[in-house]
Design a protein that fits this description.
The structure holds two protein chains of two kinds. Chain A is of the alpha/beta class. Chain A is built from twelve helices and 13 strands. Chain A has one domain: Thiamin diphosphate (ThDP)-binding fold, Pyr/PP domains (Rossmann fold, 3-Layer(aba) Sandwich), CATH 3.40.50. In chain A, 30% of the residues lie in helices and 19% in strands. In chain A, the strands form three sheets. An eight-stranded mixed sheet of chain A has the order 2-1-3-4-8-7-13-9, sandwiched between helices. A three-stranded antiparallel sheet of chain A has the order 10-12-11. In chain A, a hairpin with a 5-residue loop joins strand 5 and strand 6. Chain B has four domains: 193 residues, Pyruvate-ferredoxin Oxidoreductase, domain 3 (3-Layer(aba) Sandwich), CATH 3.40.920.10; 183 residues, 3-Layer(aba) Sandwich (Rossmann fold), CATH 3.40.50; 71 residues, no CATH class; 120 residues, Rossmann fold, CATH 3.40.50.920. Classes of the chains: A alpha/beta, B alpha/beta.
Chain lengths: 350, 608
């Protein structure tokens, strides 16, 4: 990547409802390898947040350790960020979310971070249906330690050294479906047209929204024989539909003709428009999504798009009945019962 | 010449785990308490839910000695499994109460012990029809017998039962009946009272009886904790259960019925502490409770919280290690692990409560300290303190007290300052200003990370910048020395060349040992440590004594190591007084070890 970025921005850059341009959503200059798929995903996150007019300071971006987990530095510079420890981002996000239910939690992780060391936390954050966006930048290898196979590398896929991976892969999207995730999507870092609306829909989803993004590692896993190289992914990607996310307030201005696609109504009246939806996929039906994913895998295809959504999803706060007000805004008067109550307690202990 | 022992003896109940004995035994201990006599119950239980031996020791002490004491004056034996051991552990001239439905094996008969046989099973089978009641009331029958033998006021027991079954009144009558059956059996068959006697006193004052874990849970409610994440582990589990119990009563929003708290049972201890760190980072007061094995797992995150400077409250209810150790026995053996938790150069703030009142206060204070110092605060309690009931001064809360949230900038303050640097030491005390996510649209955001960074939270690999930050953390550590609670000194000025130093649950027995030794010809000065880092008073105490006996409950003298390491204290003058068999330390044990050290002649004889 270039290390010098011009501070100049075209005065006519489009502004969103908050009066911000994309500049307010950018971060520091990326230090990842030139051509890294992760940088494209960062770009999509910036674009999605900009287009949805989310105030950057109302977003908390969290990550674990690895190339993918470095990316939060490179987007949303006005948001608080938390680069935690390897594989433990879900727990930090859970605590943060419990403290303040009103922020948007944007979690970024990688295949090493989520499918290996952090598998336990990944599994359990899904179980709890924590309200967050969880993006896995999945390149099938460990980049920062120079290209070892990860747990999502396909069996037989060849690393840069030419050695075929002898182990079965963990399918992150399939796993999320199995575990009951309320929103599961899959995409490709090189397909911004699909990824941006998926991120927007994930942001709007009031529960755990998982997007597994195949994101080729240009340095260590972009060789012939790898099933996560740019060439392989482009040849084998199979979209379930073209995706558009339509926020509630823009409904009137969109011009889809009736009957040309599937509209998925979101909790707030927004909807996801899926054009040319694959015949064998019903995104309301988990079983159909699992079947479609498995069928695609048998055909060596990488199925992308919105695979499953539960539009009636609630979240962990609903499950454990926490106050509507963020817990971090409660004052001492609401939290501390005071000396009178304590006297009563002392009395019961005598 | 035999003398009556009034209000000074140990009763041990030998039961089978899971037979409902706990509440009957508690009834006995609470009755002694209600008669105004100092009492210490200790539950010695197996790592098992049902079927294994469990003991409940009740020490009655007119002098107010609250530590454990060896030697059983009165054994209530209702567990055939442990009977041979239980017979052996009775002191000469002591008593052995057993279920005489089945005849005692001749091998269990000792000439020097008084046997009191009561056909508990026979009585209960005759008097009760419900199988569960037949089992449960055996326990109440022996309490009734004890009341008659030792002189417990019957009205005290009746009141306690009425309180216990408030709302389930129909259970009161059969319980009273069982008590009376026991008492009547003694009236009909034995001479009473015996030479162990309970006599009403007024020695309790306004003291309360509660376990340390419940006190910690209550302290967390008062301290303003809203997010609790935890993973079940003995002996810490009841901390969170107590928090939840109190929160359900005191933290429900009146209008919506929703909770002004969130409790998440995590998938493991790693996740539990991660959640706590995430919540504190986001401006909520949050804590977890665990024990040794959990603390081991939490080390990675404790290093992050230390280095990234995130307030964190952790309650470590220590048990016997290493590894799984003895999960239901006590120890003070996590000191070094906690003090230097995590890789790299780390130092963690520790608090050492010694009774339930301090469990309450220190837990509430821990949230202030964590936010003041922006670092983990680890409460070092233990199984003995956490899971046993203790006589304690009542809890106190000053309504004028305000939570101290430390250096947190709000939106207006961010507007007013020229520039914000998360790790910029503006005040020179090593403590920097932080912001909570979502505070200001364009100012105050920063990236929290476990990697090295500069004063403005930007990643750096510049060694000088890294070292500058590490040095600032040391400066903060110096600030902490006078922020954490200082030690308690038992004397205004030194009066002896010998000092005794202790902390936590060694306090009861250490105080008793001091009292007993003061009747001899050697006097001691004493100090109780309440926190780490140690301040100047601790240093001075060691420097101004020839010998300092460091009393602790672990094998390797871990606090002593910490004193040597952190204060450059001379190892020669710090004498180890240790106990690590999983049972709370006794005064006798302390006196024996100190005496040996002070009179080498005796030590020689001992070694022959």
């Amino acid at each position: 990547m270039t290390y010098i970025r011009s501070q100049f921005r075209h005065p006519g850059l489009p502004k969103n409802d908050l009066g911000y341009t994309t500049k307010e959503y950018e971060g520091a200059i990326s230090t990842l390898c030139a051509g890294c798929g992760h940088d494209s995903i960062s770009g999509s996150i910036i674009q999605a947040c900009f287009e949805m007019s989310i105030a950057p300071h109302r977003i908390a971006k969290l990550s674990g350790i690895g190339c993918s987990s470095k990316t939060p530095t490179y987007f949303l510079g006005h948001s608080h960020g938390f680069n935690s420890v390897h594989g433990r981002m879900p727990s930090v996000a859970t605590g943060a979310n419990m403290a303040n239910r009103d922020l948007l939690y944007m979690g970024v992780s990688g295949d090493g971070d989520s499918a290996s060391i952090g598998m336990g936390q990944f599994v359990h954050v899904i179980r709890r249906n924590l309200n967050m966006v969880y993006i896995v930048m999945n390149n099938g290898c460990y980049g920062l330690t120079k290209g070892q196979d990860s747990a999502t590398a396909d069996a037989g896929s060849k690393s840069k050294k030419g050695v075929a991976n002898p182990f079965q892969p963990i399918d992150m999207a399939g796993l999320a479906l199995e575990l009951g995730a309320s929103f599961v999507a899959q995409s490709f870092s090189g397909d911004k047209e699909q990824l941006i609306p998926l991120i927007k829909a994930a942001i709007d989803h009031p529960g755990f929204a998982f997007i597994n993004v195949i994101s080729p590692c240009v340095t260590f896993n972009n060789n012939p024989g790898s099933t996560k190289s740019y060439d392989y992914v482009r040849e084998h990607v199979e979209a379930t539909a073209t995706v558009d996310f339509v926020p509630l307030k823009k409904e009137i201005t969109t011009s889809y003709q009736k009957g040309t696609g599937t509209d998925i109504k979101m909790h707030d009246g927004s909807y996801i428009h899926l054009e040319k939806l694959a015949d064998d996929l019903d995104p309301y039906d988990r079983l159909s999504a699992m079947n479609a994913l498995q069928n695609a895998r048998n055909k060596n295809e990488i199925l992308t798009g919105l695979l499953y959504i539960n539009p009636e999803s609630t979240d962990l706060h609903h499950t454990i009945q926490t106050s509507d007000r963020p817990l971090n805004t409660l004052g001492q008067e609401e939290l501390c019962p005071g000396s009178g109550v304590l006297e009563g307690i002392n009395g019961e202990l005598r | 010449m035999h003398q009556d022992k009034v209000n000074d003896f140990v009763v041990r109940f030998a039961n089978v785990n899971g037979t409902g004995s706990a509440s009957a035994n508690y009834l006995f201990a609470k009755a002694v308490f209600r008669m105004g006599i100092p009492v210490t119950p200790k539950n010695i239980f197996p790592s098992n839910i049902q079927g294994l031996p469990t003991w409940y020791d009740v020490r009655v002490s007119e002098k107010g000695y609250l530590g454990r004491r060896e030697g059983v004056d009165f054994m209530v034996s209702v567990n055939p499994q442990s009977m041979p051991d239980d017979v052996r552990s009775v002191k000469e001239g002591g008593y052995f109460l057993y279920d005489s439905t089945k005849k005692l094996h001749p091998e269990l008969i000792r000439e020097d012990v008084n046997y009191i046989g009561i056909p508990l099973m026979e009585i209960c089978n005759r008097e009760f029809t419900d199988p569960r009641q037949r089992q449960l009331f055996k326990n109440i029958v022996y309490v009734g017998a004890l009341a008659q033998l030792l002189g417990i006021e019957f009205s005290v027991l009746e009141t306690l039962l009425a309180e216990q079954f408030n709302g389930k009144e129909k259970l009161i009558a059969p319980n009273i009946k069982a008590l009376k059956l026991g008492a009547q059996y003694i009236l009909d068959n034995y001479n009473y009272p015996i030479d162990l006697k309970l006599e009403r006193r007024d020695l309790i004052g306004d003291k309360i009886m509660i376990d340390g874990n419940a006190a910690c849970g209550l302290g967390a409610v008062y301290g303003g904790a809203t997010v609790v994440a935890w993973y079940p582990i003995t002996p810490s589990t009841s901390v969170v259960e107590a928090f939840e119990g109190y929160a359900k009563k005191m933290r429900i929003d009146k209008e919506t019925g929703k909770h002004n708290y969130a409790i998440v049972q995590a998938e493991d201890e790693l996740a539990a502490i991660g959640m706590v760190i995430g919540a504190n980072w986001n401006g909520a007061r949050s804590f977890t409770a665990t024990s040794g094995p959990g603390l081991s797992l939490m080390n990675e995150f404790l290093g992050l919280a230390y280095f990234a400077e995130i307030p964190t409250v952790l309650i470590d209810v220590q048990r016997t290690g290493p590894s799984t150790g003895m999960p239901t026995r006590t120890q003070q053996s996590d000191i070094l692990l906690a003090a230097y938790a995590s890789h790299g150069d780390t130092k963690q703030v520790l608090l050492f409560p010694s009774d339930p009142k301090e469990c309450f206060e220190m837990t509430a204070d821990a949230f202030d300290l964590a936010e003041l110092l922006q670092t983990p605060i680890i409460m070092m309690t233990d199984l003995d303190l956490g899971m046993n009931d203790h006589l304690s001064e009542p809890f106190v809360w000053d309504d004028k007290r305000k939570y101290n949230r430390g250096k947190v900038l709000n939106a207006q303050q961010l507007e007013e300052i020229p520039h914000f640097g998360r790790y910029l030491d503006v005040d020179g005390d090593g403590i920097t200003y932080r912001t909570i996510p979502g505070t200001h649209p364009t100012k105050g955001s920063f990236f929290t990370r476990g990697t090295s960074r500069d004063e403005f939270a930007a990643y750096t690999e510049d060694g000088d910048v890294y070292a500058r930050n590490m040095d600032r953390l040391l400066k903060k550590w110096d600030t902490a020395k006078d922020t954490v609670p200082g030690p308690y000194l038992y004397q205004k000025e030194n009066k002896s060349p010998y000092g005794v130093l202790f902390f936590g649950t060694s306090t009861y027995s250490a105080e008793e040992a001091m009292d007993l030794m003061s009747q001899g010809n050697v006097s001691f000065d004493a100090m109780r440590i309440k926190a780490f880092p140690f301040n100047k008073t601790v240093e001075d105490f060691i420097n101004t004594h020839e010998k300092v006996f460091v009393i602790e409950q672990n094998r390797d003298a871990q606090l002593r190591t910490l004193l040597v390491n952190e204060l450059d204290a001379s190892p020669q003058k710090l004498i180890r007084v240790l106990n690590y068999n999983g049972m709370p330390i006794t005064a006798d044990n302390i006196i024996t070890q100190i005496s040996k050290s002070l009179s080498p002649a005796k030590k020689l004889i001992y070694h022959q």
